[in-house]
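STRUCTURE:
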């Protein structure tokens, strides 16, 4: 095995059965507690943004330390290359295509020269979807969402709210970005009288996370910590920004110093949460996992470019590896010798079944789960095989992405255009940067994988782009 890291915190506290003799009581005391789970999700953090993933400019000492003492996944994927669909996959264990929530909320972009219009999609997480929070409540968990929701809170009041889908405690999820003077600013939903800077929001999430830990240290809990960082606009702590501007930058056209300050502040938040778990006696046999919701933003959207995802191609909003592959770190104190890289192909759709397997023998739920139980990859470091992993985006992204679907099968990855059915085929083992299109060189492989994608789209009843000519004729 090689060295490792990731984005998701599972905090597992198991009190083993012990025989105790007391001078006044010779009875055997046996206690066992289900694991607490803390899931930490970063927003737009790229695969190569952390030190442990090879970045020499941005600093992430807390996440690097967790990775060096635990495990880093180098084949981890987000459910989508944009935000809301991935959050859907994390909570439900289902492909966003199956749920029907395939775009970020509330994306409506169209492209004039395209033969298609973007697909219609769910504008909130449907209430009949079963979430991991709802399932864990059945096992006696106290549940919390601290931070970003982005699954329908501002235009669907009464239909979408984390409290409606299994979270007992919700704090700080009600921020949104509004366009102001060719950039964006953070506001409380429904109140545009006061703008908030991202450093304030990050600190608020940290405070609320620690408060929840302290108030629930004697219970069994599941806490999702969902940062708004490191999403645009570029807003950083002034002291940290000054530090990065003074620091030697090996790629000044690619690595933004303000973005560096945002990463370091988010990393410090992870460190404060870990410290609170330690101080409250919750870290023994604790599994920590950290994950990003999509790849890093590698274009100048509403300002300067924040980062690049080298050696991966492109970034957020595209079907290339830079948009889909994300950092994921797992740490389970006292359960393995740290410092490993795990190459299992793992996705955010796998979090749901993996968490359930962690706490119950039978992880079956009354809905189709697309994810796979990957617990052995976390607890034993096994590299697990996967037959297929699909992606679907029938929309136009702000970063230039167009309607496409994709399939990773083994080391081969096929990207299918949903506008004209053209294809791209890449061998990720020998061409991680997706530079050589092999679709004409291997027509049989291309044809079979293309058919697999089409059959999968039918099976999941995936939303599809609308043909403009057919749309006009129906009017």
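SEQUENCE:
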């Amino acid at each position: 095995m090689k060295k490792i890291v990731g984005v998701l915190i599972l905090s597992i506290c198991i009190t083993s059965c012990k025989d105790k003799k007391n001078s006044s009581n010779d009875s055997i005391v046996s206690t066992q507690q289900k694991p607490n789970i803390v899931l930490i999700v970063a927003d737009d953090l790229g695969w190569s943004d952390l030190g442990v993933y090879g970045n020499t400019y941005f600093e992430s000492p807390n996440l690097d330390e967790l990775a060096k003492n635990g495990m880093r996944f180098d084949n981890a994927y987000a459910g989508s290359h944009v935000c809301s669909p991935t959050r859907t996959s994390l909570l439900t264990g289902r492909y966003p295509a199956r749920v029907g929530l395939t775009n970020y909320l509330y994306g409506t972009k169209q492209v004039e020269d395209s033969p298609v219009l973007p697909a219609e999609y769910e504008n909130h997480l449907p209430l009949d979807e079963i979430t991991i929070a709802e399932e864990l409540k059945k096992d006696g968990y106290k549940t919390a969402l601290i931070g970003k929701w982005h699954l329908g809170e501002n235009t669907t009041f009464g239909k979408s709210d984390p409290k409606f889908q299994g979270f007992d405690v919700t704090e700080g999820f009600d921020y949104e970005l509004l366009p102001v003077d060719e950039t964006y600013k953070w506001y409380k939903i429904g109140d545009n009288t006061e703008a908030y800077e991202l450093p304030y929001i990050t600190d608020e999430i940290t405070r609320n996370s620690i408060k929840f830990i302290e108030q629930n240290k004697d219970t069994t809990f599941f806490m999702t910590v969902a940062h708004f960082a490191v999403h645009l606009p570029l807003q950083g702590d002034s002291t940290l920004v000054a530090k990065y501007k003074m620091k030697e930058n090996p790629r000044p056209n690619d690595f933004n110093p303000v973005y560096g300050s945002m990463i370091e502040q988010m990393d410090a938040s992870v460190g404060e949460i870990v410290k609170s778990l330690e101080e409250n006696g919750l870290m023994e046999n604790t599994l920590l996992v950290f994950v990003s919701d999509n790849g890093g933003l590698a274009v100048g959207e509403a300002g300067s470019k924040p980062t690049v995802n080298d050696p991966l191609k492109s970034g957020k909003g595209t079907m290339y590896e830079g948009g889909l592959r994300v950092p994921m770190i797992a740490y389970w104190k006292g359960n393995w010798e740290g410092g490993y890289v795990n190459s299992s192909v793992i996705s955010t759709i796998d979090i749901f079944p993996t968490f359930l397997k962690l706490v119950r023998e039978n992880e079956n739920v009354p809905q189709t789960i697309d994810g796979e139980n990957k617990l052995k990859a976390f607890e034993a470091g096994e590299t697990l095989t996967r037959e297929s992993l699909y992606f679907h985006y029938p929309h136009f992204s702000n970063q230039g992405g167009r309607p496409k679907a994709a399939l990773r099968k083994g080391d081969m990855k096929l990207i299918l255009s949903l506008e004209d059915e053209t294809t791209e085929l890449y061998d990720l083992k020998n061409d991680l940067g997706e530079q050589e299109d092999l679709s004409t060189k291997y027509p049989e492989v291309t044809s079979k994988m293309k058919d697999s994608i089409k059959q999968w789209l039918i099976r999941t009843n995936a939303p599809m782009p609308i043909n403009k000519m057919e749309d006009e004729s129906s009017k």
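REMARK: DSSP finds twelve helices and 19 strands in the chain.
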